[in-house]
Amino acid sequence: MFNAAEMSEIPLTSSVSKGCFVFKSASKKRKRHVGVEVLPSLHQLNKKVLDSLAEFIKKHGLGCSSDNWRQRARETPTAALMLGVNVPDHAMTFRSLCNLLQDSVTPFVVSVHAKECAAVKLLIQKVLEQLMGRGVSVDEEQEDDTALLQRTQCTISALCQWYKTVTKSLPVVVIFKDFEAFNSQVLQDFILICSRYTQELPFIFIFGIATSPSAIQHRLPHSVSSLLCIEVFHSLSRTQHLASVFDKLILNSQFPFKLSSRVIQVLVGIFLYHDFSVQNFVKGLQFSMLEHFKSQPLSMLCCQKQEALLSAKTLSKKNVERIRHLPSFMRYVETQEPQEQVQLLTNDEHVKVTLLFHNKLHVSCIEKNLWETEEYDSALQLLRILAKDELVAALRKCAEILKSTKILQNVLQQLEDFIGRLEALEGVSSEDSSGNGIISGKMEYQRTDLFQLQKTLLEKESRRTKRMNPYEVLRSQVIEFIDSLVREYLTPAELQPLNEVCYYSSSGVLRQRLNVTPRTSIQAALSHPFYYLQNESLKTDAGTISSAAPDLCIVYKLHLECGRLINLYDWLEAFLTVMSAAEDQDTNSEECGKYDSLKHARFIQAVSEMEFLGFIKSTKQKTDHVARLTWGGC
Amino acid sequence: MFSSSSLPIQPLCIRIIQPSNLIKRMSVTLQCPGYPEDTLRSLAERLPCRETQLATLLALMGQPDQYSYPSVFIYGHRATGKSHVVLSIMKDLELPHASVDCVECVSSGLLFHQVLSAFFGPDAAALLPRCPSLSDFVRLYKQMSSNSPATQTRYIILDRAERMRDMDFSLLPALLRLQELVNDNVTVILLSEIVWEKFRPNTGCFEPLLFHFPDYSKAELVQILSWDHHPSYTPELYASYINILLGVFFSVCRDLRELRHLAVLNFSKFCEPLEKGEAKESDIHKLWKNIEPHLQRAMQTVYLREVSSVQWEQQQMDEKEATTLRVLSAHAHIELPYYSKFLLIAAYLASFNPARTDRRFFLKSHGKIRKTNFLKKHEKTSNHLLGPKPFPLDRLMAIFYSVVDSRVAPTASVFSQISSLVTLQLLSQVGHDDQLDSPKYKCSVSLDFILAISRCVCVCVRLLDLLALSLVIQSQVVRQERSLFTAVSNLHLL
């Protein structure tokens, strides 16, 4: 998946500016960074479920000899691996599962895909190929053996014979990557056949299921499912998966490239509304990064701090000029003293110095949670009703974060002070039982959703303003403090000077590229050919047809006026009329009605192109008519 | 090639009348000339409750060197001992036989291969050409049998013979009179769970001998199941355990294999009071009280494979924690992207509502429609009983846009969601012709599923209304369907 991103980088070289060459290597580095960062994180996420799967297989691989009765019942151990609906995302999971099993449990791992197994024969062939092919490749007699495989019957009994020669008594794992897509008859037959050989050949199945475990029961009758001993394994839910990727990549201070809130909305929207694909999300992230480095020359400053400082010192004159034109920088300049303003606008060196300074500030801002600014209100509401111990815990966490940054030392001091006071309160608040009761009551509310909570909170707040226990007084103080703190330091990213360097914000481009609308663009191309061809002669008023437009466009426009069935002759007539409209002025009228074989041929071609595009099809209802396929009936 | 000399043979049906008492059955002594008597005796001991079938089969087979009937068709329910009896006879009496499971024979070539290699060794089977035809097989068989003619009757046993019907249409009729074709002392035994009437080809064929294996009665099941009693307990205790087990399961399951599986699974639980010293072996009532609810629970879980047998055992081990296992069908919830849910709802509505009513349900300003003849009579009766109806893509999208609460651009990802719903088999595509040619779909999920989805999607009240409106018409039908469904599933269990 990362190769695709690599390829799309090619157009970058067209840029001549020196800065671009600098950033090119930087962007490459960054991109690889994304890859390096995400891959292990995904592995980590699935590690738990994969480990439990391996454990399951180990257990069954060893235990098969000990419990005799199960052999009699011919039950094959089966793991149902729940992976969520996005099937393309599963490839990586299965790859790591395969590797894990081959490394730690058994070399005999086969994974099959529904597409390659339309019949039992093909499925068995696939299994045999993967198992025996792998085994013999070591013996350097590959050619002979594959020939032998073709010669020997493609049956499980042949596999049995092969298994006896290997004699490792390790289980044979068959992974069905997309269980839903398998033909149920094929699956049933395969399971029946395998169950005949369980004594000699310890099979273990893994079903990769995208929907729900009940899919097994829907697909297999009782006589077959009674041959399986099914255990369900759940992988992380898709949204959890995304959240952890989010933490790793976007809310990470190590990673200088940032997305504006709009862009994040687009990416998360695609994820939640359309595909649930973490892979696509990462791709979108990579794409926006490439776009950023491509479209914003100043993005060369978007890298680790040391590198950024270094490159800031060596900024070319052109790039300094670019900085001056940045809207955020102009805003910043306006807030400065007049003398400073002049200096900023004239002296390159001065700009560079301020830039260094800002860079520092900027990094510190980024380190805070970006989302707090956006969901600030709700977060604050939540803070207001936090019970004491939770508040203390939250503050402790804040203090720890601040300790690591070393910038906001005085804030840290204050925070610790608050924590101390809160802890001191412990004795007092325990006496005030009524207050505590209310607090614990609220704790329960917290578990319900935020909306409900806010509502009840507002009611209670209004009722209870008279009597506040010391804890609540202190709490409101804390909240005020945090509020002021946030307002001071966490200004929205868009207002920060030089935000353009690190923030990618063109959500429109991203939406256009990632969430394409083929139908709209075809319609746009056909009804407004000027939009794509950029030929002045094609510019027309809405609703009219230019005779200069391509034949296809004319035919398309004409067909929009028809109902479900289109008479070909009438269509041709209308087409000829439009075609001749341009020539009408200089030719006499008698030629007009004549059949021109060239025009006829052009019409036929245009109609067949329409058919190819899927707008019309031939119909048997009337021989000289074609049927519209797009909204013709309405 | 079918010689006219063979007599027109009436289908001969042998029905075994169940002897009423066990004693009489035990007294049946096998006397078949040509076979060693002590082997026969041990065979009869190993096949309890199947003595009569054994005797009849042996009588049919005749003496080893005599020609036997060309083909025998044995049928009976699952786990009534068909293959077990036949294969035991073959193995114990050391008769030349080829046993083939037809599920495995994905091509007829495999069947020929297995038969030839069983009778004449793998070298003979290797002589078969790449895609052997029936005549190849017959030719090779003749050639081989002329070299080594049968001194004893050779048997070809075809398990799960119903699969033969899916193979080459000439295969079954040819195998039924193989004896004639190859001129050898060979008998084909077909084993199947379904009756011969479902096999008979249109063109007619040689009628095999029909032979029915009846289900085991309750007493017979007790007798067989009591065989594998636990060594550390008395056989009487195990027999009473089996009686209790059958008391619970006999009404739903008569499959010997399943019953045996269940018996093994639950025996340790049954013995628990004994091991703790809370009850004695004679305390049957106490033991029954202990095990009965447990077995009831087993019927709903492990028997239906909602819970795997390993998990079931695990649960028995740590009973104290009272962990309730999540059964398989409890995870019915499917996480779907937001628009996919709406697409699925739209597909459901399109599948179960007549297209005529769309205007009324989905247009905000539909004209007045007179209520009396709003639905035609045949539409009123059974939308759910008829199952989902196919609908074109256009209609799906139109309903989708009217159902979804925000403006949705017709992006590629919306359309690709439809195809991924098809891969997940939540929708199914009807007719596999050209994609350009206005594809049609069917919704293949249940009402409950749609209701669950719309419950978690529905912020907009309108959609709920819509669903309610369109479902009110069908609710009557749904209720009928439910009762029918439960009746059918009960039938299935019986």
Automatic annotation (TrEMBL), chain A:
Keyword DNA-binding carried by entry: yes
This protein's UniProt keywords: DNA replication, DNA-binding, Nucleus, Phosphoprotein
Domain of life: Eukaryota
Any one GO BP annotation for this protein: DNA replication initiation
Origin recognition complex subunit 3 insertion domain location: 360-506
Keyword Phosphoprotein: yes
Domain Origin recognition complex subunit 3 winged helix C-terminal: 519-631
Described function: Component of the origin recognition complex (ORC) that binds origins of replication. DNA-binding is ATP-dependent. The specific DNA sequences that define origins of replication have not been identified yet. ORC is required to assemble the pre-replication complex necessary to initiate DNA replication. Binds histone H3 and H4 trimethylation marks H3K9me3, H3K27me3 and H4K20me3.
Protein name: Origin recognition complex subunit 3
Species, as recorded: Cyprinus carpio (Common carp)
TrEMBL record, chain B:
Species of the source: Cyprinus carpio
InterPro entries, per the entry: AAA_16, ORC5, ORC5_C, ORC5_lid, P-loop_NTPase
Keyword Hydrolase: no
Subunit details: Component of ORC, a complex composed of at least 6 subunits: ORC1, ORC2, ORC3, ORC4, ORC5 and ORC6. ORC is regulated in a cell-cycle dependent manner. It is sequentially assembled at the exit from anaphase of mitosis and disassembled as cells enter S phase.
Presence of the UniProt keyword Isomerase in the record: no
Principal location class: nucleus
Keywords (A to Z) from UniProt: ATP-binding, DNA replication, Nucleotide-binding, Nucleus
Domain Origin recognition complex subunit 5 C-terminal: 336-459
Role summary: Component of the origin recognition complex (ORC) that binds origins of replication. DNA-binding is ATP-dependent. The specific DNA sequences that define origins of replication have not been identified yet. ORC is required to assemble the pre-replication complex necessary to initiate DNA replication.
All copies of domain Orc1-like AAA ATPase, residue ranges: 46-189
Family stated for the protein in its record: Belongs to the ORC5 family.
Protein name (database record): Origin recognition complex subunit 5
GO cellular component: nuclear origin of replication recognition complex
Subcellular locations according to the entry: Nucleus
Biological process (GO), any one: DNA replication initiation
GO-annotated molecular function: ATP binding; DNA replication origin binding
Domain ORC5 lid: 238-305
